[in-house]
Amino acid sequence: YASSKLQRETMYSQTIESYQKMIDSSEISAEQKAIAQNEIIKINNEKNAIMIIENLIITKGFDNVVVFINSKSVNVVVKAGNLAPEDVAQIQNIVERELNTEISNIHISTK
After folding, report:
1. pLDDT tens per residue across span 25-61
2. Contact of 57 with 87, CB cutoff 8 Å
3. How far is CA 11 from CA 8, 18, 25, 64, 83, in A?
4. In terms of Cα–Cα distance, which of 71, 65, 51 is closest to 9?
């Protein structure tokens, strides 16, 4: 879990760094800089939502969790043997609420 979270954080940091270089460049138009700034804001909002989701799921009694988001789906990996239907429902509810996403786009697995 720690390794996955570190890899995710590294990816976000590299992406933000790339956008920041665009913003700092004198060769980029004001419009492109605004787009880059908006992307940084989106990434930071996503990182915050992931942190909230992971912490809320852990407070439900799970040892560990990692969340990955791509353009169309949210993958949640929970450290647990088996998940009862009510556990799945709670996790889906948390993810749906924090990311404003459809339940059909939330994929939960255990490890």
Report:
1. 999 999 999 999 999 999 999 999 999 999 999 999 9
2. no
3. 5, 11, 21, 21, 29
4. 51
Contact 37, 23 (CB under 8 A): yes
Question: 81: pLDDT confidence band, cut at 50, 70 and 90?
Answer: confident
Long-range contacts, stretch 66-75, CB < 8 angstroms, 24+ apart: 66/1, 66/4, 66/5, 66/8, 67/95, 68/4, 68/8, 69/99, 72/105, 73/105, 73/106, 73/107, 74/99, 74/101, 74/105, 74/106, 74/107, 75/107, 75/109
Compute the distance between CA of residue 14 and CA of residue 9 in angstroms, rounded to an integer. Answer: 9
Cα 31 to chain center, whole Å? 27
Mean pLDDT score of the chain, rounded to an integer? 95
The token duo for 62 is 């799970």
CA 109 to chain CA mean position, Å: 16
